[in-house]
Amino acid sequence: MIQKLDADLSWAYFLNESALHDWVLNTWYIWPTLETLHFIGLCILMGPVLVVDLRLLGFYKELKASTAERLVLIALVGFAINLATGICFLAGNTWKYAEGNLAFDIKLVLLLVLGVNALVYRLKLEDIFQTKEVTNLSRLVGGISLLLWCLVIVCGRMITFFAGYS
Amino acid sequence: MFELLEKSAYADWFLLSMWGFPTFIAIHSVGMAIAAGLGLVLSLRYFGFRDQFNHSVLQALFRVAWIGFFINLVTGLALLAPRISEYLFDPTFLVKMAFVLIAVFGMYVLHRDFRLFDRRPEKNTMRVFAALTVTAWVGAITTGRWIAYLSGLYG
Q1: Chain A hits for B17, Cβ within 8 Å
Q2: Which of B148, B155, B35, B73 is nearest to A153 (CA)?
Q3: Per the CB < 8 Å rule, is B155 touching A48?
Q4: Per-residue pLDDT tens for B85-137?
Q5: DSSP secondary structure string, chain A?
Q6: In contact, A31 and A24? CB cutoff 8 Å
Q7: Chain B contacts of A62, Cβ < 8 Å?
Q8: Which of A18, A156, B47, B134 is the most buried (most CB within 10 A)?
Q9: Where does B55-123 have alpha helices with state H?
Q10: Nearest C-alpha of chain B: how many angstroms from A45?
Q11: Is the dihedral of CA A82, A84, A85, A90 positive or negative?
Q12: Please, which residues have CB within 8 angstroms of residue B28's CB and are 6 or more apart in sequence?
C-alpha cells in the first residue's frame, strides 16, 4: 500500500523538494501575496468568461467575433496567472493538496471538464458570433462554463477547510 | 446594538457550525469574481475596447455586475455580523471598506455615463473613473485577503 502511494505521489515528492517549495515558504508574506494574485487572476479570467457565456446562453445576441476573441485572450492571461500561482501553492504546501483533499480533487475534475468544454467552443462555436444565433449547443457550452467556473471558485475557497479531513 | 447581532441565534450558528464561515466566504468569492471581473471588462471600454460592445450587451453586463455586488453585500454582512465589534476596529477591514466604497462609486459613475451618453466613451474624466474603479477593486481584493493574515480574525 505504501509502495503504491509512493508511486502515485512522485509528483508531490518532486514539488515538495523543489527550490520553488523553499521560495514559497521562505518569507511569511509570499503565500498571502500569491493568494492575492490568485484572486486577481480569477477576476481577470471570470469577467471576460462571463461576457462570452452570457452571449452563448442568449442574454444578448450581439457580441462581435473580434470582441469575443480579445476577451478570451484576456481570460487566458487570468488563467496563466492562476496556473502559475496554483503551482506555487502545490509546491509550497504539497500535502495539503496531495493527501486526498476532496475540494481540491473536485476542482481538478471540474477544470478538466472545462478544458473539454473550451475545446468544443473553439471547434464548434466561434462562428456563432457572425450569425447572431443561439443554439442548443451554445446554451449547453455557455451553461456548463458559467456553472462550473463558479463551482471551481467555490471548491478552490473550500480547499483550506478540507485540508486534513479526507 | 453590536451585542444584539453577536448574541443572536444566527451568530451562534455561524460561530459554532463547521459550515457557516466556509459557505459564506465561498459565495463571497464568486460574487467578487462577478463584480470585479465585470468591473474590469466595463472599464476596458475606456481603454482600447471603445467600440467593442453595443447597447444591449452593456446593459446586461452592468446589471450582472450589480448582482455580483449585491451577492457580496449580503454575504459580506453575514460574515460581518457575528464578529462586528472586532471587524469595525480592524484597520485592514476598514481600508477594505474604503476601497469597496470607491469601487462602487466608480461603477455607479461608469453606469451613469453609459445610460446618459452611451455613444461617447472617450472622455478623459471617464477614463480616470474607469482606472479608479479597477484600482479600487484590486485594493479591496488585496486588503480582503490580508484581513486573515494581519488581523487574525479568520484563517
Answers
A1: none
A2: B35
A3: no
A4: 999 999 999 999 999 999 999 999 999 988 887 666 667 888 999 999 999 99
A5: -HHHHHHHTHHHHHHHTSHHHHHHHHSTTHHHHHHHHHHHHHHHHHHHHHHHHHHHHTS-S---HHHHHHHHHHHHHHHHHHHHHHHHHHHHTHHHHHTT-HHHHHHHHHHHHHHHHHHHIIIIITTHHHHT---HHHHHHHHHHHHHHHHHHHHHHHHHHHTTT-
A6: yes
A7: 54, 56-57
A8: A156
A9: 55-80, 84-87, 91-116
A10: 7
A11: positive
A12: B71, B72, B75, B76, B79
What is this model's ipTM? 0.92
Lowest mean pLDDT among A5-14, A75-84, B28-37, B48-57: A5-14
Place of cell 459557505: B23
Chain B residues with beta carbon closer than 8 angstroms to that of A154:
26-27, 29-30
Residue with cell 471548491: A155
Q: Which of residues 40-99 of A touch B (CB under 8 A)?
A: 40, 42-51, 54-55, 59-64, 66-67, 70-71, 74
